[in-house]
């Protein structure tokens, strides 16, 4: 059997521009022409969700979270940033404008209330806000990673849901940096069995698992409707539902709506993350 290193060197010579892509040879591992598995939900009964912004937990995996809850799993959601950049009109004000600061703080509180309402609908009882400034998560890794390490140590999940490493939003990628950094701060044997289930938000992912959310799509719609500060500016709810519809059709899941994930053991997912830093 040909080794990964040999295959990588062959591809590097034949497709140098493609291999320079941050996913490099890992794409070969993801795309071996195996169709994604169709599961009732990703593995795990003790779930930790890392959401970069208030609403990402609902956009990326809201239907699946409700399925976890309905199955009796314990779910904990951590919102990493405060969402202050979620209004284009506020972003258009000068940085030193006192009105901008006031409006940002009002938006932070509003989005927190929206999140609590959405999580109530999804049935998630465990939730917390880590408070990094929206749009600056990468610069806050040294502060947020220890908080995630604390949550991991206290919650001891068997699966962590987070945005996939190729998501184009800077805060979404930084969520992965914070998570990997947090794992490295934990000296515990239980992390060896930890699974990662990466969801999609703004970038389609290399999915290896589809979850049929036909029975929970109405709950997801209601949860997403809580975020009026966001969907009032741009009806991205239609895009979210369209993606879920596409995933169901393309994955032939049998239902009308599906959420897509890349599920992998922590060790493999961490290697994939590190490959993006090369």
Task: List key phrases describing it.
8 strands, 8-stranded mixed beta sheet, alpha/beta, 278 residues
Plain-language structure description:
The chain is of the alpha/beta class and 278 residues long. It has 12 helices and 8 strands. The chain is globular, with a radius of gyration of 19 Å. The mean pLDDT is 87.
Strand order across the biggest sheet? Answer: 1-7-8-6-5-2-3-4
SSE string, helices as H and strands as E: HHHEEHEHHEHEHEEHHHEH
Total helix count?
A: 12
Distance between the termini: 26 Å
Radius of gyration: 19 Å
Q: Note poorly predicted spans.
A: none
Give the integer mean of the pLDDT values: 87
Q: Tell me the β content.
A: 15-25%
Number of strands: 8
Q: Please outline the major beta sheet.
A: 8 strands, mixed
**Secondary structural class:** alpha/beta
Binned, the helix content reads 40-55%
Gross morphology: globular
Short description:
The chain is of the alpha/beta class. The chain contains 12 helices and 8 strands.
Strand and helix map with partners:
Elements: H1 4-14, H2 16-20, H3 26-30, E1 37-39, E2 46-51, H4 56-70, E3 74-81, H5 88-91, H6 98-122, E4 126-132, H7 141-155, E5 159-163, H8 170-184, E6 195-199, E7 209-212, H9 217-225, H10 228-231, H11 236-251, E8 258-265, H12 266-275
Parallel strand pairs: 1-7, 2-3, 2-5, 3-4, 5-6
Antiparallel strand pairs: 6-8, 7-8
